[in-house]
């Protein structure tokens, strides 16, 4: 089997050594070179033609974002960003995802070498997902051309109890942005699980809140689930839907990982199936692995209408594929048709 060929770009000699060692420990991955700055990296990309890059966010001579933007315009390829958990690092990483990075890996705060060893499985999984990713050239933002969806007045009463539940992973931050920015202010309540570490989810929600007509926020325990608002599960916490009388709300917990994730899409979808039943609509977007497939099947069996993103628009066609194979999906559509499909069902 052909190995995944990786170029490691980082200004720290220690980080280059640690990343090379960790990635090389996986028999499916070969580190074919390293570079201390983007100028060296540019030459090595031409010379070695790697399958995946790991790219440090902060580097001398040319910062990681500038390099990434140039790369995605001229020679798009799978990139995993290596970031710090600082606020500035989170900001830069979110921008990197907007520019086309497939995913990101956060450096441990303290003992770098030991901390990285503990995260080796995650790092190799991210690189393997990136190798499968469908990377597109960087396009100019066209949010002003977004179609407008309208909830029919006849559907207003029917949808007062309707919950939209969305799950996503690799490639999901941009897919969610593309989807949520098209939704009108009276969209039924939305609950979202996107695989992402703590700190990043709040920043992600806050960014979306400035770009969308609906309100978007990182969920807090006990938050009401209301029309015109999307709640995003915070990193490191599972989020579940509950009902108190006539009112839906979310509860958060730090129970064990499910499908190696916390937050887990299955935890959210299971709770929506049990709490909202047929008054729900489920959407599963791009992502690696199988999280959400079992939960979407439960939603579907409980009477919910379910949608999966199709392979043509997915960055990684993993989670939607597993959900389709499990038999829990009513409709498979490309990302740019998800909102229209949602509103067609809501307006029925």
TrEMBL record:
<dbReference type="InterPro" id="IPR000673">
    <property type="entry name" value="Sig_transdc_resp-reg_Me-estase"/>
</dbReference>
<dbReference type="GO" id="GO:0000156">
    <property type="term" value="F:phosphorelay response regulator activity"/>
</dbReference>
<feature type="domain" description="CheB-type methylesterase">
    <location>
        <begin position="157"/>
        <end position="348"/>
    </location>
</feature>
<protein>
    <recommendedName>
        <fullName>protein-glutamate methylesterase</fullName>
        <ecNumber>3.1.1.61</ecNumber>
    </recommendedName>
</protein>
<dbReference type="Pfam" id="PF00072">
    <property type="entry name" value="Response_reg"/>
</dbReference>
<dbReference type="InterPro" id="IPR011006">
    <property type="entry name" value="CheY-like_superfamily"/>
</dbReference>
<keyword id="KW-0597">Phosphoprotein</keyword>
<keyword id="KW-0963">Cytoplasm</keyword>
<feature type="domain" description="Response regulatory">
    <location>
        <begin position="5"/>
        <end position="122"/>
    </location>
</feature>
<dbReference type="Pfam" id="PF01339">
    <property type="entry name" value="CheB_methylest"/>
</dbReference>
<dbReference type="GO" id="GO:0008984">
    <property type="term" value="F:protein-glutamate methylesterase activity"/>
</dbReference>
<keyword id="KW-0378">Hydrolase</keyword>
<dbReference type="InterPro" id="IPR008248">
    <property type="entry name" value="CheB-like"/>
</dbReference>
<dbReference type="GO" id="GO:0005737">
    <property type="term" value="C:cytoplasm"/>
</dbReference>
<dbReference type="GO" id="GO:0006935">
    <property type="term" value="P:chemotaxis"/>
</dbReference>
<dbReference type="InterPro" id="IPR001789">
    <property type="entry name" value="Sig_transdc_resp-reg_receiver"/>
</dbReference>
<keyword id="KW-0145">Chemotaxis</keyword>
<dbReference type="InterPro" id="IPR035909">
    <property type="entry name" value="CheB_C"/>
</dbReference>
């Amino acid at each position: 089997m052909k190995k995944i060929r990786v170029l490691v770009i980082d200004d720290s000699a220690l980080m280059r050594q640690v990343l090379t060692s960790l990635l090389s420990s996986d028999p499916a991955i070969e580190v074919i070179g390293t570079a201390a700055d983007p100028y060296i990296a540019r030459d090595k990309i031409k010379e070695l033609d790697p399958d995946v890059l790991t790219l440090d966010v902060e580097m001398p001579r040319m910062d990681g974002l500038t390099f990434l933007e140039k790369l995605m315009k001229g020679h798009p390829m799978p990139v995993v960003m290596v970031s710090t958990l600082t606020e500035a690092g989170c900001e830069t990483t979110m921008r990197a995802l907007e520019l086309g990075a497939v995913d990101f890996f956060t450096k441990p705060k303290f003992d770098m070498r030991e901390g990285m060893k503990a995260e080796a499985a995650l790092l190799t999984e991210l690189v393997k997902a990136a190798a499968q990713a469908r990377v597109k050239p960087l396009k100019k933002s066209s949010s002003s051309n977004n179609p407008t969806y309208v909830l029919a007045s006849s559907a207003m009463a029917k949808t007062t109890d309707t919950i939209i539940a969305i799950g996503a992973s690799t490639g999901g931050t941009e897919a969610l942005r593309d989807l949520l920015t098209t939704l009108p202010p009276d969209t039924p309540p939305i609950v979202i699980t996107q695989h992402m570490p703590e700190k990043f989810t709040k920043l992600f929600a806050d960014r979306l809140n400035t770009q969308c007509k609906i309100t978007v926020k990182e969920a807090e325990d006990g938050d009401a689930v209301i029309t015109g608002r999307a709640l995003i599960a915070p990193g490191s916490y599972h989020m579940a839907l509950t009902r108190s009388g006539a009112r839906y709300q979310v509860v958060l917990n730090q129970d064990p990982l499910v499908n190696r994730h916390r937050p887990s899409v299955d935890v959210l979808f299971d709770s929506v199936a049990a709490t909202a039943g047929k008054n729900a609509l489920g959407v599963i977007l791009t992502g690696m692995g199988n999280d959400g497939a079992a939960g979407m099947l439960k939603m579907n069996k409980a009477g919910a209408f379910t949608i999966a993103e199709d392979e043509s628009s997915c960055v990684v066609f993993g989670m939607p594929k597993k959900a389709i194979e499990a038999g829990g999906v009513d409709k498979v559509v490309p990302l740019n048709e998800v909102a229209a499909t949602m509103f067609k069902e809501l307006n029925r």
